[in-house]
Amino acid sequence: MAEILKVSSTSDPSATAGALANTIREEGIAELQAIGPKAVNQAVKAITIARGYMAPSGVDLIFVPSFVDVEIDDENKTAMRMEVRTRLPFKPTKEKEGAKEKEKMDNHVDEDREAPPRGDELTEGVEGDEEEETEEDYPPEDDQEDILDI
After folding, report:
1. CA distance 28 to 16
2. What CA–CA distance (Å, rounded) separates 75 from 125?
3. Distance from the Cα of residue 80 to its chain's centroid
């Protein structure tokens, strides 16, 4: 789980929203924690602003609030924790970067070996209902010296 973003009554909602959006992009999930009504207000504002930051990417954020007991200066307090996630499944950039690295490794070809054919090369030139080529489609062998291989 990602680090818990702690929101206070004096937190700037825009800055918190930026941190929240970046955490969602990287981790796929984030948690905000606030103690007191003013801090909760700032956290909800931050989530609302972050939704606007993520919307152009087609990502919609939702949050699930819960209460947690925390100890601050040897005193127990009740905090509100908000788990923020995407409404639909979303691949965080950390997973995407890992997938890209894996793809690079999978596509790596030793110079001594020939690369295996890709899927599009296996079906290249194959169409649904086309007729098969016959010997009549090619010129006789003695005329082939006039054909250029390009």
Report:
1. 16
2. 74
3. 28
37-54 helix and 13-27 helix, angle to the nearest 10 degrees: 60
Residue 135 CA, distance from chain mean position: 51
**Domains assigned to the chain:** 4-90 (3.30.110.20)
pLDDT digits (tens, 9 = 90+) for 85-131: 999 888 888 766 666 565 655 555 444 555 555 555 544 555 555 55
Per the CB < 8 A criterion, the answer to whether 22 and 5 are in contact is: no
Q: Percent helix, strand, coil in the chain (nearest 5)?
A: 45, 25, 35
94, 99, 97, 77: which is closest to 2 by C-alpha?
A: 94
